[in-house]
Structure formats: structure tokens, C-alpha cells
Amino acid sequence: MDLKLKLKNLRIKYNYSQENIVEVLDISVRQYQRIENGDNKPSLDVLMNLSKIYNSNLINDYLLSNDNSYLYIKKLELELKNIIFNIDIDKLKIFINKIQ
């Protein structure tokens, strides 16, 4: 699930209004609306605070998602290096299935 859908779903799940969220984040309602609509990317500070509000790891979800292909590829590279370094055939098979 991409970040904008996750943010909206979490906000609805916790029965928060956008106004409730921006009070904690100390940003404008319009700025938050742009983040929730996917028009703007949140700052790391905003992501950290949203993670605290929802008790969720939104930072990893956002940074390692397919939406951010560069970071996703870097994550896959690191994962592959760890598998090769440790020569774990089972993990290598899982990795290959993941990228196919």
C-alpha cells in the first residue's frame, strides 16, 4: 500500500481529522492534505511524528516501498549482498522469487 492510502486509512481507523493530525505535526492543513493526496512528499520529521501518532513504522514503509525505486533497489542490493556473503541458498531463492 502506498503512503497516501496508508495515511488516510490510519487516520480514519483512529478516527482523527486532518486538523487533529496537523496540530501534532505543526504543519498547515493544506500541507498535510498534499501529503495525504500524494502531491507532496513528507519530510523525515513529519514521517517520524506520523509513525509515533499511529504507532507504525511509516518511515520504513515509505523509504523501502516500490514508490521510491532508488531506495528500493538499494535495499535489494544490500539484501543480496548479505545473502551472498552468508551463502544462504534458501534466502537466495526467496530473494529471486521477490524480484521476479
TrEMBL record:
Gene3D superfamilies: lambda repressor-like DNA-binding domains. GO terms for molecular function: DNA binding. PROSITE patterns: HTH_CROC1 (PS50943). Residues 7-62 form the HTH cro/C1-type domain. CDD domains: HTH_XRE (cd00093). This is XRE family transcriptional regulator. It comes from Helcococcus ovis.
